[in-house]
Design brief:
The chain has helices at 18-34, 75-92, 97-113, 115-125, 130-150, 191-202, 216-228, 243-252, 265-276, 306-318, 338-349, 369-385, 419-422, 438-445, 461-470; strands at residues 38-40, 42-44, 47-49, 54-59, 62-71, 168-176, 179-183, 206-210, 236-238, 258-262, 287-291, 296-300, 328-334, 387-390, 397-398, 401-402, 409-412, 429-435, 450-451, 453-457, 475-478, 495-496, 514-522. It is of the alpha/beta class. Helix 6 (191-202) links the parallel strand 7 (179-183) and strand 8 (206-210). Helix 2 (75-92) crosses helix 8 (243-252) and helix 3 crosses helix 7. Bound molecules: NADPH dihydro-nicotinamide-adenine-dinucleotide phosphate. NADPH dihydro-nicotinamide-adenine-dinucleotide phosphate binds at residues 183-188, 192, 210, 212-213, 242-244, 247-248, 251, 262-264, 267, 270-271, 291-294, 325, 424, 426, 452, 494, 498-499. NADPH dihydro-nicotinamide-adenine-dinucleotide phosphate (NDP) is lined by residues 183-188, 192, 210, 212-213, 242-244, 247-248, 251, 262-264, 267, 270-271, 291-294, 325, 424, 426, 452, 494, 498-499.
C-alpha cells in the first residue's frame, strides 16, 4: 500500500510581495504567447479527435478577444467515448489502488510546476483575479493529493471493518462502479473539473468529462496534465460539447453508471429526473451526485465584532464577483446594528476596483452574455425590492474594454420573501435584510429552499450553538467569510435544493463512486 506523507493543503501565494506579482505577470505573458488562441480537440480512447464545428471561449473582460476554441462533441462522439470507456474499465479496475493514486500525485506535481500558468489562463478565460485564481489552483492540487490518499482506505479485501464471527471469514470489498459522466461548471473550471474526475478515477472508474462551454481551455489544460501523468487511454475521455446535447445524451444513456454534476439547480434537477428513468437495456439504478446553487446568508447580531463582520461580508459577497455557489448573497443584520453594519459594508465595498482579471481588479466581468442579462434583470427590479445603496448598474464596459461588467451592488431593506432574497443571482448583487432580533435573523436565514453555506457573526456562545444545530446549511462558518472551503479541512456540499450533500474534499466522498460487496467464506 502507498506510504506517503500526510496530506497538507497548499499554501496560498502572498500577492502583497512584489516578486509574486511579477511572477504572475510573467505567467500571463507566457500564457498569452503559448495558450491563448489554442484549440483543444476531444480526447477519446487516447486519441485527439476534432469536430467540424467548434466552441469558442471569449474573454469576459474584453469580449473582442477569442481566448481559444475546443471541439464540439456530437452525439456519435459521446457514444464512442462511452463505449471506449467501458473497454478501458476492464483493465483500469484491476490496477492496484496505489498505482492509480500515484497518477494523481504525479498530476499534482505537474500542476504545482504549472501553477501560475493555470492561474493566468483563468484570469484571461473567466476573469479571475490573482488571489481567486491562486486559491482555485491550490484547491485543484489539494483534490489530487487528498483523493490519492483517501483512496488507500478502500484498497484490497476487507477494506471496511466487519465483526468477528466464529468459523467464517467475512469481508467488505469496495468495487468501482464502471463508467460515469462528470459535468462541471465554469465558475471553478480548474478545481471542480479536476476534483470531479479525479475522485471516481482513482477508485477504478472511467470518466467522460464534459466541461462547461465558457471554460473549455482551462479544462483542456488540466486534461493534458492528467494524460501526461500517465492515465491510460480511455480512462478519461475529454469531451467538450454542449450540455443540452451531449450532456443530455450521456445522462440519459442506459450505459451510464453514475453522474457527478456541479451546476445550477435547474439543470441539476433535470438531470436527476432523466437519470431516474430506466432506459431499455439498463441494468442498474444510476448514482447521481449533485452540487447545486445557493442563496447563502450571513447573520450579524448586536454582539458581533462589526469590523470582523464587515470584512467577512465584503470578502464573501464580492470574491469572484459573487460567482461562487458559496457566495454571501444575503446579509441578514439585526435591527440594533443594521445601520452601522450596512454603512461599513457599503463604504468598504465602494472601494473595490473594477477591471480585468489580468489587471488583478477586485470586481471583474461576469462570465457571459446570459449571466450579464440575468443579473441586469435583477438590477431592474432592485429599486422595487429595496433601496439601492451601492452600484446598481451594468455598464458592459470598463476602461474602454467591452465586457460583461456589473457594478458591485448592495440593496438594503430587501424583504425576506422578495425575489432578490430568494433566487440565486450569481453576480455581485447583494440583498441586505433587516431582522428584528437574533431569532428573526435565524428564521430569515432558513427561509430559502437552498442550504449550501451560511454564517453567523456573533460573540454570544448560546446563539452560535443554536445556529450550529438549526441553521440549515451544509457548510456553516462563524465569525469569518462564508466562502473558501479548503479540501480536507472543510468538506464541502449543501443540503436541500443545494445538492446531495456529498461533501467534496471530505473523508467519505470517494465512497459515492464505489459499490460494496460482502464476501463470506465458511471454513
Ligand atoms: P449550469 O447548470 O448552466 O451548467 C453546468 C454544466 O451543465 C455545464 O457543463 C453545462 O454545459 C451542463 N449542462 C447544461 N444543460 C445540461 C443538460 N441538459 N444535461 C447535462 N448537462 C447540461 O451551471 P453553470 O455552469 O452556470 O454554473 C453555475 C452554477 O453552478 C450556479 O448555480 C452555482 O451555484 C453552481 N455551483 C455549485 C457548486 C456546489 O458545490 N454546490 C460549486 C460551483 C457552482 P454547457 O456549458 O454546455 O451549458
Amino acid at each position: 500500500m502507498l506510504k506517503i506523507q500526510d496530506y497538507r493543503p497548499q499554501p496560498f501565494i502572498d500577492f502583497t510581495k512584489a516578486e509574486n506579482v511579477q511572477a504572475y505577470e510573467a505567467a500571463l505573458k507566457k500564457v498569452r504567447a503559448e495558450l491563448v488562441g489554442k484549440h483543444y480537440p476531444m480526447v477519446i480512447d487516447g486519441e485527439r479527435v476534432d469536430t467540424a464545428e467548434k466552441l469558442t471561449s471569449l474573454n469576459p473582460c474584453d469580449t473582442s478577444e477569442v481566448v481559444g476554441t475546443t471541439a464540439k462533441a456530437t452525439i456519435e462522439d459521446a457514444e464512442r467515448a462511452l463505449q471506449g470507456a467501458w473497454k478501458a474499465f476492464e483493465t483500469w479496475k484491476t490496477w492496484d489502488m496505489d498505482a492509480r493514486a500515484r497518477i494523481l500525485l504525479k498530476a499534482s506535481a505537474i500542476l504545482k510546476r504549472r501553477h501560475l500558468e493555470a492561474c493566468a489562463l483563468m484570469s484571461i478565460e473567466v476573469g479571475k483575479n490573482y488571489a481567486e485564481a491562486d486559491v482555485e489552483v491550490a484547491e485543484a492540487i489539494d483534490f489530487l493529493e487528498y483523493y490519492a490518499r483517501s483512496a488507500m482506505k478502500y484498497s484490497g479485501f476487507g477494506s471496511s471493518e466487519t465483526t468477528w464471527f466464529e468459523g467464517e471469514e467475512n469481508g467488505l470489498m469496495s468495487l468501482p462502479l464502471g463508467v460515469g459522466v462528470s459535468i462541471s461548471p465554469w465558475n471553478f473550471p480548474c478545481a471542480i473539473f479536476v476534483g470531479m474526475l479525479a475522485a471516481p478515477i482513482v477508485v477504478g472508474n472511467c470518466v467522460i468529462a464534459k466541461p462547461a462551454e465558457d471554460s473549455g481551455l482551462i479544462a483542456g489544460f488540466i486534461a493534458d496534465i492528467m494524460y501526461e501523468a500517465g492515465l491510460p487511454a480511455g480512462v478519461l475521455q475529454f469531451l467538450p460539447g454542449v450540455g443540452k446535447d451531449v450532456g443530455e445524451y450521456l445522462t440519459t444513456h442506459a450505459k451510464t453508471r453514475f453522474i457527478t454534476f456541479t451546476g445550477s439547480r435547474a439543470v441539476g434537477l433535470h438531470i436527476n429526473e432523466v437519470a431516474a428513468k430506466v432506459q431499455p437495456g439498463q441494468k442498474w439504478i444510476k448514482k447521481v451526485v449533485l452540487e447545486l446553487g445557493g442563496k447563502d446568508g450571513m447573520i450579524v447580531d448586536e454582539t458581533a465584532d462589526l469590523e470582523v463582520a464587515i470584512t467577512a461580508a465584503v470578502q464573501g459577497a464580492f470574491g469572484f464577483n459573487g460567482q461562487k455557489c458559496s457566495a454571501m448573497s444575503r446579509l441578514i443584520v439585526v435591527d440594533a446594528v443594521y445601520d452601522d453594519v450596512v454603512n461599513g459594508f457599503v463604504e468598504r465595498a465602494s472601494k473595490l476596483k473594477m477591471g480585468t482579471g489580468e489587471e488583478n481588479a477586485n470586481v471583474t466581468a461576469v462570465v457571459n452574455q446570459m449571466s450579464f442579462d440575468k443579473i441586469k434583470g435583477y438590477l431592474e427590479i432592485a429599486p422595487q425590492e429595496g433601496k439601492v445603496l451601492l452600484g446598481g448598474e451594468a455598464p458592459g464596459e470598463c476602461n474602454g474594454k467591452q465586457g460583461y461588467y456589473v457594478q458591485a451592488t448592495i440593496v438594503g431593506d430587501v424583504k425576506r420573501e422578495a425575489r432578490m432574497a430568494q433566487e440565486e443571482i450569481f453576480g455581485p448583487v447583494i440583498s441586505v435584510i433587516r431582522a428584528k432580533d437574533w431569532q428573526d435573523a435565524l428564521d430569515i436565514a432558513n427561509s430559502t429552499e437552498y442550504g449550501l453555506t451560511g454564517g453567523v457573526c456573533s460573540r454570544n456562545r448560546a446563539r452560535l450553538e443554536q445556529a450550529r444545530q438549526e441553521l440549515e446549511v451544509g457548510n456553516l462558518y462563524f465569525n469569518r467569510k462564508i466562502t473558501g472551503a479548503i479540501v480536507g479541512v472543510q468538506p464541502f456540499g449543501g443540503y436541500n435544493m443545494s445538492g446531495t450533500d456529498s461533501k467534496a474534499g471530505g473523508p467519505d466522498y470517494l465512497a459515492y463512486f464505489m459499490q460494496l460487496k460482502t464476501v463470506t467464506e465458511r471454513w
